[in-house]
Amino acid sequence: MPVPDLSSSMAEDADESGDSILPEPLRTVTPLTGPHPDETMNLIGWGMFLGLLILLMPLLPFILIVWLISKVTDALTPS
Question: What are the UniProt keywords, alphabetically (predicted)?
Answer without folding.
Answer: Membrane, Transmembrane, Transmembrane helix
